[in-house]
Amino acid sequence: MPERVVTACVLIIGNEILSGRTQDTNLNHIANVLGESGVRVREARVIPDIEDAIVGAVNEVRAKYDYVFTTGGIGPTHDDITADCIAKAFGVSLVIDETIAARIRGRPSEPDVMASRMRMARIPDGAQLIENATGGPQGFSIGNVYVMAGIPSVMRAMISTVRLEGGAVMQSRSVTAYLGESQVATGLEEIQERYSEVDIGSYPFMDADGYGTTLVMRGTDPATLDSVLDEIKRLIVDAGETPRNVVTE
Amino acid sequence: MPERVVTACVLIIGNEILSGRTQDTNLNHIANVLGESGVRVREARVIPDIEDAIVGAVNEVRAKYDYVFTTGGIGPTHDDITADCIAKAFGVSLVIDETIAARIRGRPSEPDVMASRMRMARIPDGAQLIENATGGPQGFSIGNVYVMAGIPSVMRAMISTVRLEGGAVMQSRSVTAYLGESQVATGLEEIQERYSEVDIGSYPFMDADGYGTTLVMRGTDPATLDSVLDEIKRLIVDAGETPRNVVTE
Question: What are the phi and psi torsion angles at B93 (to 5°)?
Fold first, then answer.
C-alpha cells in the first residue's frame, strides 16, 4: 500500500523580505519542523502586505496542499493585515477572542496603545488558538491554515506547539566528495532510475579545499536509503575520490 | 505623471530549500540587486525540481510580472531540469549553444564526464546567454525570464552582468526605538494615510536591550521620505522614547 504523502505550503507575508531588507529564516525552520512530523513542504511563497495578494494566495494554496502555514503580519500596526485577509479568504467575520484579549489586558497601558494592541485579539470566527509561549498574543488556525507571527523567536514558540497528522517521516543520507557533479552524473542518473522512491539530489559547492559535491538521498525507508548510499559511495570511489562526511538523519 | 513601476518575481528552484536542508540566500541578494535598478520584487516562490511545478509556475508568473529570475537546476545531473522546463514553458526546443559548449570543452575530461557536462550547453532555442565570470557555463534568458545557477557565488556573478530597464529607484529611511509597536500604531496609521505613496513598515524585534521596533519608509521621492521620517521621529519622542539608528539608503 503506498504511504500517504502529507503536503504543506508556507506563505511568508512581508514587504521587508521582498525588498531585500530582511533575510527570511522562517521557511527553513518550518520545513525542518514539519519534516520531523512527516509533513513535506512542497511550495513556499513570499508575498507582500497587500490584501488581494494574500487572499488570493491563501485560497489557491489551501485547496492544493494539506496544510498552509503563514508567517508575518499579525502585529498591532496598520501594515499587519493577515488576520483580516484570512477571514476574507474564508468568508467569515473577524471576532474578538477573549483569551487573547485577556492576555493583552494583562499588560496595562494607555488607552490608545491598548486599542492598537487589541487589534491582535481579532481572529476569524471559528478559528482555534495557537499557543505563544513567549507570553504575547496567540496565533490561530482555521481550516488547514496556521497563522503565526513573523518574528522568528515567536514563530518558533508557536510552531513548537502545533500537532499535525503527518505521513511517513522522510529520512536522509548524505555523502560529500571533492569531485565535479559531472564525474558522477551518469552513474547517479542510473541509480535514480532504479530507486524511483528515493529522491537523489546533487549539490555542488566551493570551499577552501576546492570544488565538491554533496549527494543527498531522501526517502522513508532506511534500508533502501542505506543501499542507495552504498551504491553512491562506490560511484565516488570508482571516480577516484574518497567519500567524506557521511550523514544519516 | 505617475512613474512606471517595474516588477519581478523570483523562482527558487530546488528540493533542498523545501526540505529544510539548505537555507536560501539568493532571494535576498536578488531583491537588493534589482532594487538598485529600480525593479521591485513583488513575489517569490520556492518550488521543487518537478517538471509540472516549474513549467506551471514559470508560465503563470512570466505573464504577471515584468521580469522573472530563476535560480537552481542548471547543473549536469539528472535533477537539473530547469533548462528543459523553460523550453517547455516557452514551447521551443532545446539546442546546443556553441559558446557554452566551447567553454565546457576548454576543460577536457573523460568522455562520459564530458557528456554529462554538455548537458549544461543546452539552452532553449532563441535564448540569450548570461555571462558567468566564474568561468563555468553561462546562464541564459528568454523573453522576460532570466535563468541562473543556484550556487550563491555563481548566481551573484551572473546577476551582476544583467542589465535591466528599471523604473524609479526605491529609497528608504529607517529609524529604531525601544518601544512596542502598539505605542506608535495609531500615529503611524495616520501618517500612512496622509502619505499613500510611501510604504511604511513596522518591524518589531527583541535584542539584549529589550523589545524594540524599527520603522521603515520606502518610496521614490527623497524629500517626501525625509518629511515622513521627521514625523515618525516626532511620534517616537512623543511616546517618550529616543529615535535611534537613523539610516538613509
Answer: -90, 165
